[in-house]
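Researcher: We plan to redesign the surface later, but first we want a full-length starting point. Tokens attached.
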């Protein structure tokens, strides 16, 4: 009886390789490589991040400029800080919009404002819990 195997259709073989397989494959690839940036090309070809690519290329005997690696590290830190600041600024809630009618709030799908307007119209505190008589 045939064994069911997991198929990785659609994912290139070079991106499914483990480190030992990548290192064996990269020896042949480096002989044919004619591009500018070996680190970036290795990352794209094998689907690894630049740190992993730098480690594996150094194991293969490729010398990478330490200034370039430190520059990549610094720019990555700056991007992470920028993302963090953007996320923190998005966390602040915007000022509530004043609608002229209940229908405007409904059309804008601002149901919190709609609820608050209905409670105000009916003279109910919007923060109180609504309970029915038992």
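Model: Full-length starting sequence:
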């Amino acid at each position: 009886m045939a064994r069911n195997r997991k198929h990785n259709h659609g994912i290139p073989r070079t991106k499914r390789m483990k480190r030992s397989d990548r290192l064996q494959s990269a020896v042949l690839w480096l002989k044919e490589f004619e591009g500018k940036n070996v680190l970036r090309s290795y990352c794209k070809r094998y689907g690894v991040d630049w740190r992993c690519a730098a480690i594996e290329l150094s194991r293969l005997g490729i010398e990478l400029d330490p200034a370039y690696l430190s520059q990549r590290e610094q720019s990555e830190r700056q991007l992470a800080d920028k993302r963090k600041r953007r996320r923190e600024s998005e966390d602040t809630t915007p000022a509530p919009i004043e609608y002229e009618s209940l229908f405007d709030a409904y059309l804008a799908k601002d149901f919190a404002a709609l609820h608050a307007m209905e409670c105000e119209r009916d003279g109910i505190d919007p923060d109180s819990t609504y309970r029915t008589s038992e």
